[in-house]
# Entry
Amino acid sequence: MTVMGTFAQVDTMTRNRDPIGITIIEDNRYLREAWKAILSSAPGFKVYGDFDSCESAFASGAIDHSKVVLMDIGLPGLSGIEGARTLRKTYPDVATVMCTVYEDDKNVFDALCAGAVGYLLKGIDAAELIRAIDVAADGGSPMSPSIARRVIAYFQSPAAKGTHETDELTEREIETLNYLAEGKSYGEIAECLFLTIDAVRSRIRNIYLKLQVHSRGQAVAKGLARRIIRRF
# Structure
């Protein structure tokens, strides 16, 4: 596991602190129970609830007592990415850590831009899972090594640096990109900008073309890399 944002090697066995509250959202019952058993048995951790959907977790009240939410992306009903976006708005002090089978750029960047602070691949062992939750609770960003490499490679790529004048966004396009970063729908952006939805779609297509991207997550990631996202 790679840890971005901290170099500390935290010993969860000896550290003095209040227990880290955790909520688990995973629709695979066997995996969910395994995560719960691992984290419940680790000193300094307390699992307040485990759920098979975002909807049931949000309705339970468990997140009110949690510092970290461990969540899959492919969930029934509300996806993990939409769940992360909801958590960022409703529980801004709660750290969302994805643990999933998806390692493609779109899911990685969509999840991180939605508000996830960490991204782990399923198959992580017990010690790495415990370390990841601890790091997330301490303000770090735990990532599986292959995911961290993808993120670094993206920001080091020439396309991400935006060196060409033709890539320059207008002020209106930057404003629209910022609304995309906030997770607003096309309809909500249209209301904010007093435009039709078709006009918003056209503007977003131009943004994607200029930034040489194909999704909201990639556009927001590049906007962050170029420091033109103002609302984060």
Remarks:
- The chain has two domains: 2-154, 159-225.
